[in-house]
Specification:
TIM Barrel; 7-stranded parallel beta sheet; homodimer; two-stranded antiparallel ribbon
Chain lengths: 416, 416
């Protein structure tokens, strides 16, 4: 309990400051971005009557799941990282009414947002559950607020290794992240078998980076100070995060997720040696343990993808492919043909430069064609090399989706 | 003249705003960050009586130059990118008195700053002339101000291709950048043959990125919009920048620079295809033309290094090595042994993660040892994988320098 109070004190002050001085902080932020006095987060949400997995209707479009595990598909499945987000006017409309994390915490709102891309682009091959990677630090007792124009901010980031004592290292996930499982289940209900539902989590090092830096960082100086000067405590934190992520993602499957993606967005900031010490082993562990747990719990052993952004160096992709992850998601800084040569029969996801969506629909189609030629249409999930940008035109996202679907179908038919 | 007035108008307003509202903008900024009514920049500086090259004393320590062109050295030479900067208290002291760009423009100040690292660490193997890559856009008529806590800001970035008409595409370099040549010459005078003097320039795409984004950018969205939607105009701008950079760096050699480094800091944000269209050809062109010009002008054909940050993908290093650049400078995201295998006899510069300087001197030494083992002590210039951070401890920089020098000497002696 002390942990929660520690973080609560200074955090509240900061929020008030930002509210009063800039008028820019988010709506309804205060008091819901960390566990309450009973250790709950979003206890007052409208709870979801979770439907058991066996009662869900059969999946009508399983291209994503097949491609992820290397089974043939009639055409390449496609979805976009951050497909539910600010580039959609319908998202911005909802966002006016609620703070970012409140959107994550209110199952009906988060569900509505998750479904927006599918409503607009009905041929999309997946829905990803709207949430944020930083809900895990929140569950551990750290406050995170979303500051307009800046992104997520931790008013009290971890400074010294002794700050670990203030963290809840083994949070009760139903109490702290039950709202996420509610959202997953509700999304699965509403999608109603049209496409698979993707659940995700941040990877340990990426979460550690935010928890120490207190937000986005160009250099990760403070987090790297920990790696260098407090390796034991760094591993302790990374292992605690790993344990939480394993349980968190398994529970997402239990709630309805049909594919899991792990985001190591900061992986590329590490040199190879630090990556192999502080990132890769935890990624590998997560994939292995999640699959073991799923088997043990007789839950569906869903496909898993890993996005280690910027980690393209010699041997790195090959080593990711050697884990229990089914598919490796790539950023745009690697040529598709080169990646396919390196990963041969491994399923790949990616990797159009999101900026390509600023080009004309004709040009987008041309670039998608090159990408499909490089990766091939099989063992492949088309996606961007990073998330959608807030200033993307939804019509250009549509052009991307259509190009993948039409061109890959054509390519497959020509092969016959 | 219209170009200058165009940029002047809105810029002045912005500066006043930032002065009055935040109280944080820099000192003595106004009116000196773009050409004056006569097309001059820093016309009121205390001009330097430039000493001709033939009058300079012989170079006492030529390890840097030898290593750059693959000649044997008794030990590995070492310097640090951004070695003259905020991590030095003596720099911060001077910085209190002058705006950042005024420091660049006042030869005695810039010279003093350039020499500070050598004064503190007399065994350093090079001095780099203090300046900024954005002095070139200034010479083209664009205003750039340094905003505390934010970095460089262009009050009026390029928006549309028609904005190119407002640029001075062929600035008179003696009028607009004569102050830089003054600094180079003065530094060479004051260094007095102790170590070589490095001159540098930003590469065309990196400069274009700043000119369009108006400052640092995570996504380079606007610059990439240009590449995608205005390729002809993008090439026009990149070629104009290339022409300026060639003349600019040749003149630096004429003024006293003994090695030239080109910074393509944003290269890694481009996917391979865009890199080969919009970055690499200009880098190659710069190296080729600079060397041709130096020969033609009977100037010393100095070694050239290129730092294309983040550009480590398959074939990229090899292609940089195939240009007229003598050495390839690497970031920390590639293993030294791998890099050495890929580049064989090419001279390499780099690549310790700057964050390693947060570790203890003992640990720094250990990491330097690994780096030297990977790269070898020959054809190699020890450096960081990026610039010094403002919060680095100078003593740790010293530990880095000493470790390189002592360990490489030891390794060379053991080989005998």
């Amino acid at each position: 309990m002390e942990a929660l109070l520690f973080f609560a004190g200074a955090g509240a002050a900061l929020i008030l400051t930002s509210n009063h001085e800039t008028g820019k902080s988010d709506k309804k932020t205060y008091g819901e971005n960390r566990p309450d006095a009973h250790g709950n987060i979003a206890a007052n949400r409208k709870k979801v009557q979770r439907v058991p997995l066996k009662e869900f209707p059969p999946l009508l479009n399983d291209r994503l799941l097949k491609a992820a595990v290397g089974e043939p598909t009639d055409r390449t499945p496609v979805w976009m990282m951050r497909q539910a987000g600010r580039y959609l006017p319908e998202f911005r409309e909802l966002r006016k009414k609620a703070d970012f994390f409140n959107m994550c915490q209110e199952p009906e709102l988060a569900c509505q947002v998750s479904l927006q891309p599918l409503e607009r682009f009905p041929t999309l091959d997946a829905v990803i559950v709207f949430s944020d990677i930083l809900v895990i630090p929140q569950a551990m007792g750290m406050e995170v607020i979303m500051v307009a124009g800046k992104g997520p901010v931790f008013p009290n980031p971890l400074k010294l290794p002794t700050d670990l004592e203030k963290l809840v290292m083994k949070p009760e996930l139903e109490k702290t992240l039950g709202y996420v499982f509610d959202v997953v289940n509700l999304v699965r209900q509403k999608v109603n078998g049209r496409v698979p539902v993707i659940g995700f989590s941040g990877a340990p090092f990426t979460l550690m980076g935010y928890m120490i830096e207190g937000g986005g960082s160009k250099t990760l100086s403070n987090a790297k100070r920990w790696l260098l000067n407090h390796p034991v405590e760094s591993h302790r934190l990374l292992q605690a995060l790993t344990d939480i992520i394993v349980e968190y993602t398994v529970r997402k499957v239990e709630a309805g997720a049909q594919l899991l993606q792990i985001f190591e967005s900061n992986g590329g900031d590490l040199g190879p040696e630090q990556y192999y010490e502080f990132s890769y082993p935890y990624l590998a562990q997560i994939a292995r343990r999640v699959k073991e747990e799923l088997k043990k719990k007789k839950l569906p052993v869903v496909p898993m993808t890993v996005f280690a952004r910027g980690v393209n160096f010699e041997g790195a992709l090959e080593k990711l492919a050697a884990t229990e992850f089914d598919a490796v998601s790539l950023d745009w800084c690697i040529d598709p043909t080169v990646a396919r040569n390196r990963l041969k029969n491994t399923s790949i996801q990616g990797n159009l430069d999101p900026c390509t969506l600023y080009a004309s629909p004709g040009r987008i189609r041309q670039e998608v064609g090159k990408m499909l030629n490089g990766f091939g249409t099989q063992n492949y999930i088309a996606n961007l090399g990073h998330g959608m940008h807030p200033d993307h035109d939804p019509e250009h996202a549509h052009a991307f989706i259509k190009a993948v679907q039409e061109l890959s179908l054509e390519m497959n038919q020509n092969k016959k």
